[in-house]
Write a structure and sequence with these properties.
Blueprint: E1 4-8, H1 13-24, E2 28-33, H2 36-50, E3 54-58, H3 66-77, E4 83-86, H4 101-129, E5 132-137, H5 150-169, E6 175-182, H6 188-193, H7 207-220, E7 224-227, H8 231-239, H9 245-256
Parallel strand pairs: 1-2, 1-4, 2-3, 4-5, 5-6, 6-7
Helix pairs in contact: 1-2, 1-7, 3-4, 4-5
Length: 259
């Protein structure tokens, strides 16, 4: 039986690849992002290429009312949601006290509040049906503090913690929650956040490889999956709890500075 998946941030990058992977496997998709033109292009591609149904829901998740409108659009379409992929998110570089507060507030709204709201709206139906998959896109950034991206790193720490806690709450059901923790990935994120000129993003993983890893881990019901991270950097992350925090933060800051 074909499953229906909702993907936020579906107009580009990892989100677009999630939608392609799901459609390639015969599932219907609900495409959510701000840019209706990009979503409609993707809708035509997926429907023509894979014979699936694609519903476009153009919404800006910086609007706190958007999650409810998305939920209502799905309900009005008659679709039953099997998979929720909370992929939308963005970052921004600079000293916290110098950045525009509205930009960081919008980041918190998208990365934390909208993700949590969509999960709260769709999760009860999954629990009632005793089936469902949720994939929340976090980041390896959430594993440590991030000077020059203080808010972004903190939002991703929330996503991982939130996802893991739900896993335990749902342990007696057939509903699973997976956190995807990508490293530096080829996407619009780098340019919009100002990270494209930093050492961290001089070598990036492909959006397709990261989406594949996350999608497959979600379908297996895994807790966390790290993707797009070189072996050497995985070793560094494994050592984080044992490193002096001040020294660690100085090193992280260097990766956020322009080359």
């Amino acid at each position: 039986m074909a499953q229906t998946a909702l993907v936020t941030g579906a107009s580009s990058g990892i989100g677009k690849e999630f939608a392609r992977i799901h459609a390639m496997r015969g599932g219907d998709v609900i495409l959510v992002a701000r840019r209706a033109d990009k979503l409609n292009e993707l809708k035509q591609e997926l429907e023509a290429g894979h014979g699936v149904k694609a519903l476009v829901v153009a919404e800006d998740l910086t609007d706190e009312a958007a999650p409810q409108r998305i939920f209502d659009a799905v309900a009005n379409s008659g679709s039953t949601l099997d998979i929720l992929i909370n992929n939308a998110g963005f970052g921004g570089r600079g000293l916290f006290h110098e950045r525009e507060w509205q930009a960081d507030r919008d980041m918190i709204q998208v990365n934390i509040i909208a993700l949590s709201a969509l999960t709260r709206l769709f999760l009860p139906g999954m629990v009632e049906r005793n089936r469902g998959r949720i994939l929340n896109v976090s980041s390896t950034a959430g594993e440590l503090p991030g000077p020059l991206q203080a808010v972004y790193f903190a939002t991703k720490a929330y996503v991982t913690s939130f996802s893991n806690a739900l896993t335990e709450e749902l342990s007696e059901t057939d509903v699973t929650v997976t956190a995807l923790l990508p490293g530096a990935t080829e996407s619009e994120f780098a340019s919009t956040s100002g990270m494209d000129k930093t050492p961290l993003f001089q070598k990036t993983a492909s959006a397709r490889s990261v989406a594949n890893a996350g999608y497959n881990a979600m379908q297996r019901g895994e807790l966390d999956v790290v993707a797009g991270v070189p072996f050497s950097r995985r070793i560094v992350y494994s050592m984080v709890p044992f490193l002096p925090k001040r020294a660690l933060m100085r090193e992280v800051r260097k990766t956020q500075e322009e080359v």
